[in-house]
Amino acid sequence: MKLLHIDAGITGPGAVSRQISAAIVENLVRANPALEVVHRDLDADPIPHLDSHNVGALRETGGDGLEGEAARTAAVLQEFLDADVVVLGAPMYNLGIPSQLKAWFDRIMVAGKTFRYTAEGVQGLAGDKTVIIASARGGLYAPGTPQAAADFHEPYLKGLFGFIGVKDPTVIRAEGVNVSPELREDALKAAFASAAQVTGAPALAA
Ligand SMILES: Cc1cc2nc3c(=O)[nH]c(=O)nc-3n(C[C@H](O)[C@H](O)[C@H](O)COP(=O)(O)O)c2cc1C
After folding, report:
1. Which of 81, 124, 138, 179 has CA 20 to 30 A from 109's CA?
2. CB of residue 147 inside a 6 A radius of ligand 1
3. Burial class, 17, CB count within 10 angstroms (exposed 0-12 / middle 13-18 / buried 19+)
């Protein structure tokens, strides 16, 4: 069984999303010691954004001097395809996801690999994975809060994973962490408590 641990926070080792994703992974490994963990840090080792010079890297062979970028795309994609469980540290930056994380999605949302178009519409090909999102936000955006309509973060992540067949990712959230020290402490406490409960089922159901 393989677990892919991705972090996208740019605010250092104390990043809230990193703390929560680490707690989730620690708990899953404690419960499933045989888990093989791969950590991809999108801040320490960023994936270049796609542009007019390198978009050919989405083709399998690359060509035009893009062999290195094509190999990177293949490696990032294969790492995702190999994972049974994905734990994603995903902060909200400017109402959405970090651009580093968008660059990662650009390499794994590949027709024929993680989804395909059919006469009946899009068919996700990665629905066998368990995905757990460690969400961190400075303000409050949960359903029912005044800023809920400005949440382009969790709904977007759910949309992306849904597109490739992962219908119901688990979200463990610490939000309002920049509102007040008290709210930050409460949000972290609640998120760590949820992280301690996470089982990774169904992928890890023995
Ligand atoms: C570049 C940047 C943009 C941010 N934009 C928002 C935002 O739009 N809404 C919000 O509530 N918090 C925003 N924040 C605050 C972060 O969501 C908050 O600090 C959260 O803890 C970030 O997760 P991290 O600690 O894992 O980096 C932003 C922080 C940064 C660094």
Report:
1. 138
2. no
3. buried
Domain parsing of the chain, residue ranges: 2-197
C-beta 178 within 6 A of ligand 1: yes
Q: 99 CB less than 6 Å from ligand 1?
A: no
* Beta-bridge partners for 117: 122
Task: Please identify which residue in the block is written with the tokens 């301690």.
Answer: 196
Q: Does residue 137 line the site of ligand 1, with CB under 6 A?
A: yes
- Cα angle 20, 110, 132; round to 5: 20
Task: Provide the residue-wise pLDDT of the chain in tens; the chain has 206 residues.
Answer: 999 999 999 999 899 999 999 999 999 999 999 999 999 999 999 999 999 988 988 876 656 778 888 999 999 999 999 999 999 999 999 999 999 999 999 999 999 999 999 999 999 999 999 999 999 999 999 999 999 999 999 999 999 999 999 999 999 999 999 999 999 999 999 999 999 999 776 777 65
Q: For residue 130, what are the β-bridge partners?
A: 85
| C-alpha 137 – ligand 1 centre gap (Å) | 5
CA of 157 to the centre of ligand 1 (A): 16
